[in-house]
Amino acid sequence: MSDKTYVCVANIGVADAFDKKYKSTLPKLIKATTENAINRSSKLTTKAPPDKNEKGFYLEGNLNSLMKTAKGNRIVIGGKMTMQLATWPDKRIFATSNTGAKLETSESDNIDDAVEDAVKEILGDLLPKVIPVLEKEAP
Question: pLDDT tens-digit profile of 45-56?
Fold first, then answer.
């Protein structure tokens, strides 16, 4: 058995985005950010154990919405995300967490950067809720 408990991070989907390109670009950012946060834990790792049947956790989720709205000469980027926490390898969900965030930016700012910042803000709120639950449940 490993010193740390394995967490399999599934590809995170993007259900609804104001620009279709984010459905292919954001899952990579979300997965990498999530894996980095897990690997900073003293109890969790994303490194798969040699024994494929070793118990651990499975984390999946969805960026449910990504919206862009005009507010005068400003742009508001907002989104909502849900993550499901499950056991591994059987994938039995035992908890769900969700959150959302909005980020206001100038019309002249790079929208792609603003979208990334908004998603990182969502994850910055969500992951500190998810990781302690996994750590508490870890053997």
Answer: 999 998 888 899
